[in-house]
Design brief:
The protein has 553 residues and is an alpha/beta fold. The protein folds into 3 domains: 7-255, 3-Layer(aba) Sandwich (Rossmann fold), CATH 3.40.50.970; 265-418, Rossmann fold, CATH 3.40.50.970; 432-552, Rossmann fold (3-Layer(aba) Sandwich), CATH 3.40.50.920. The chain is 36% helix and 17% strand. α3 (32-41) packs across α4 (58-66), α13 (314-326) packs parallel to α15 and α18 (450-462) packs across α21 (533-552). 51% of the residues are buried.
């Protein structure tokens, strides 16, 4: 497929959309020419191209039919933040978590070989260097030759994620897996890429094509500091029309979004960790390639010997922390809720069954808005609640973080602390809540839902319905007593199924449904699924009317 657009124009479009809406910038800027070469050598409507992960695939979206809508990237009802088969047939597989592409491609190839009528389509896995070191990627590489169904593994190597760990991807590395190798190829030379991919297309066995790219290519600030520009919020961008034909953006004026005057939950966690580590030299931190995102940059700088980044290897992070705890340390695994899902077995088997004092600091717990279905942190309560002996905390406000962390750090077993993305609520920003009154409506609000529950209470008061809000900062074990309330309502920023509301037998349970929640602002998504304050208040009032009708009848 020959493209009528140029790489420079695609970069301009990426910059325009991301500067307006936020998104993953540096990785996608680095993979523009690679996307061009892939669309020239393979047919996106027939061949299967799997990206690992989708944050490097904005150019692919633009070149496969979504250019006209790309301005709505990450907006509610607009172009999805990651690759989504429901959005386009060109997206062969969902692509939000790292390490899955080679295994998925191997399965696609095996299925196509059995079911295809006529010519078998080509199957390609485009894998970033950090994703290649994920355990699932290595397991899949180990099995490719044995399974015997051809795929093409395109390694997008930008050196950024593996430099610190000393990774070296050479022909000898892939020879261990019995795979032929082409490269390294200049990942910004479309002609060279096309030649290498065309050669791989003709190969009869699985093969690796090694492309070397520059993260942030064409946008000097991202080239200079790709980590800072990995994922950004909206920022000012002027002169986009002056992007040079060679793909460089020297003429673009830019300003990185300035941080909010109010600290985020991640910032408060990071400060609490530094304070705890200063008091106790057993305190240490473990992350899976998310130092900046989890607020631990300052910790890592001050305590380099007690900071461990294992890369995109969540399972190892948990078991490594279990080993630290067994040796007498007090480890904290700082991890996004969506990535915690990948290590549930290790949490139960390696941590909980041994009752080890490992703390899981679960960032981005709840709806994360524009990052969409693959990144919402909706499942940690329901997944963790049944595990052996683990305690689950949900701080109400920023000032609670340090006390909760200290409680968890010096407990004699595992603990989890869940908190949402974004600005942390301050204690002085929370109105005083009433004590529980008898025979009224009792709203049990977990963690960040307290503010919304107070709004629900005010809305109910407008209809002469009295309600009390009970802040819940501990999900397990339950830390409040019995009540004679007429109606008990639970609100939690997670799925209802298996969640807090079910554990306490609430009459009405508000949270997220058993469905794939898309992308948009948190407010938009709450309105869409009836979880905004107005919808909750209306449903409570309607339920009370039905109760009265039954009683009167």
């Amino acid at each position: 497929m020959k493209c009528a657009i140029t790489p420079a124009q695609v970069r301009e479009q990426i910059l325009s959309a991301v500067s307006a809406n936020g998104g993953h910038l540096a990785s996608s800027l680095g993979a523009v020419e690679l996307a061009f070469a892939l669309t020239e050598v393979f047919d996106p409507a027939v061949d299967r191209v799997v990206w690992d992960v989708g944050h490097q695939a904005y150019a692919w979206k633009i070149l496969t039919g979504r250019a006209e809508k790309f301005h709505a990237l990450r907006l509610h009802g607009g172009v999805a933040p990651f690759l989504s088969p429901s959005e386009s047939d060109a997206d062969a597989f969902i692509s939000g978590h790292a390490g899955v592409a080679i295994a998925a491609a191997a399965g696609l190839a095996a299925g196509e070989a059995r079911l295809a009528h006529g010519k078998v389509p080509q199957v390609v896995a485009v894998v970033g260097d950090a994703a290649l070191m994920n355990g699932e990627s290595l397991e899949a590489l180990h099995n490719l030759v044995r399974l015997g169904h051809k795929i093409i593994v395109v390694l997008n190597y930008n050196g950024h994620d593996c430099t610190d760990s000393g990774c070296a991807f050479t022909a000898d590395f892939f020879k261990v897996f019995g795979l032929p190798y082409v490269g390294p190829v200049d990942g910004h030379d479309v002609e060279a890429l096309v030649k290498a991919l065309a050669s791989a297309r003709e190969c009869e066995t699985s093969i690796v094509v090694h492309a070397v790219t520059q993260k942030g290519k064409g946008f000097p600030p991202a080239e200079a500091d790709p980590a800072a520009w990995h994922c950004v919020g909206p920022f000012e961008l002027a002169g986009a029309a002056e992007v040079k034909s060679k793909g460089e953006c020297d003429s673009i004026l830019h300003t990185k979004p300035s941080p909010s005057a109010a600290s985020t939950w991640s910032d408060w966690f990071g400060e609490a960790m530094v304070a705890a580590a200063r008091r106790d030299d057993r305190v240490c931190a473990v992350v899976a390639a998310m130092k900046e995102g989890t607020g631990l940059s300052v910790f890592a700088e001050e305590f380099p010997g007690r900071f461990f980044d294992v890369g995109i290897c969540e399972e190892m992070a948990v078991t490594f922390a279990a080993g630290l705890a067994k040796a007498g340390m007090r480890p904290v695994v700082a991890i996004y809720s969506t990535f915690l899902q990948r290590a549930i077995d290790q949490i139960q088997h390696d941590v909980c069954l041994q009752h080890l004092p490992v703390v899981f600091a679960i960032d981005r717990a709840g709806c994360v808005g524009a990052d969409g279905a693959t990144h919402h942190g909706l499942y940690d309560i329901s997944l963790l609640r049944s595990l052996t002996g683990i305690r689950i905390f949900a701080p109400i406000c920023a000032e609670d973080m340090a006390a909760v962390l200290d409680d968890a750090l010096f407990a004699d077993g595992p603990s989890a602390i869940r908190y949402p993305k974004g600005e942390a609520v301050r204690r002085n920003g929370l109105p005083t809540v009433n004590s529980q009154r008898e025979n009224g409506v009792r709203i049990l609000a977990v963690g960040d839902q307290v503010q919304k529950a107070i709004k629900v209470k005010r809305l109910l008061a407008n209809s002469d319905i009295a309600a009390d809000v009970v802040p819940v900062d501990r999900v397990k074990p339950i830390a409040f007593g019995e009540s004679t309330a007429k109606l008990t309502v639970a609100m939690e920023n997670g799925v209802v199924s298996g969640g807090f509301g079910e554990s306490v037998g609430a009459d009405l349970k508000f949270g997220w449904p058993d469905a794939a929640i898309g992308h948009g602002t948190v407010d938009e998504l709450e309105r869409e699924f009836g979880f905004d304050a107005e919808s909750v208040a209306l449903k409570i009032a309607a339920h009370l009317r039905k109760m009265e009708e039954r009683y009167d009848g």
